[in-house]
Amino acid sequence: MIGLKEQPAQRAVTLGQYIIENKATVRSAAKKFGISKSTVHKDVSERLKKENPMLYKEVKNILEINKQERHIRGGLATKRKYSEIAERRKKQGQQ
């Protein structure tokens, strides 16, 4: 877990490593470490570039892939949501 007092530059490196190791999204990294999406984004897009340019390039590639796949994940989430709603209605109708 990232401590709130951890230096922003070190936090950026920690987040970058997590994103690479897990092919994580900004949202999932934020949730994992209990910080805002804005902080994650700023850390890996600005601070990491200065702190560790090689790691930044790797993270940038993963985030670009995530961005390209975003609409697919959104569509699957919507499908799952409406399937769950339909299932609940079906169960309520059987009672």
Question: Can you describe this structure in just a few lines?
Answer:
With 95 residues, this protein is an all-alpha fold. The chain has helices at residues 8-22, 26-33, 37-51, 53-94.
Provide structural commentary.
The protein is built from four helices and no strands. With about 100 residues, the chain is mainly α. It has one domain (about 10-95). The chain starts with 7 loop residues before the first helix and ends with a helix.
H-E string? HHHH
The largest sheet, given as strand count, sense and whether it forms a barrel, is: none
How many helix segments? Answer: 4
Radius of gyration: 18 Å
First CA to last CA: what distance? 45 Å
Shape: elongated
- Total domain modules: 1
Structural class: mainly alpha
How many β-strands, per DSSP? 0
Mean pLDDT: 88
Query: Helical percent range?
Result: over 70%
